[in-house]
Amino acid sequence: MKTHHWKSIIFILIVFLLIDSPKAKAPEKETIVSDDLMEISVLQSIEADTGGRIELAVLEKTSNSEPEPAVTPKIEPAAESEPYYIKDIPLSKSNQKHLYDTCKKYGVDYIEALAVMTVENSQYDPNLKYKNKNGTIDYGLFQINNSNREWLKKELGITDLLDPYQNITAGVYILSDLGNRLKGHKKYIAYNMGESGMKKYISRGNNTTRYSRKVMETYEKLKQG
Length: 225
Known about the structure:
225 residues, alpha+beta, Lysozyme, 3-stranded antiparallel beta sheet, 8 helices
């Protein structure tokens, strides 16, 4: 009986110690270093009182080197487009632009207009006056003859043939008007002599003049740059 009694006591003590023992400690955090030098930290926890449930948590993934900050590319402003500007011509940018815009308005080739202006006034002097043998006077950049003054004033409001803007408007308008009826050399002869003068000249078997040939040559030179 005594032996059995002591065996019972020992069994009860063993059971008590097992029940009262502390929970199993979680293993230390493991660190794995991969070939690309990235660290992955894994924490494992074991809950002894929940039937041995295991949880895995990935805490962080870091690089040994800090990434370089993003750089915003600097965008330079686009240069202003100036298709009208020809630096070799001693005519101001503002006058060249007005000529270009007026040519677009009236459907005249810009280089053609420049060629006529160059032959008429090689110095591009807006104040140039030239007195003809018949007593008429040519004015300004396009050397507009004063015989055109009245109808230009009526149709375009031109009041000052020495004003470069008004003179350019008049010259381009005349080229446009002639171009609606005449082509090639005839157009330039008419610009130089007037339509009636051109018709008389052509009627005598002439097809070109020194003036018309000069305009054509200047046009080709300007076009080639």
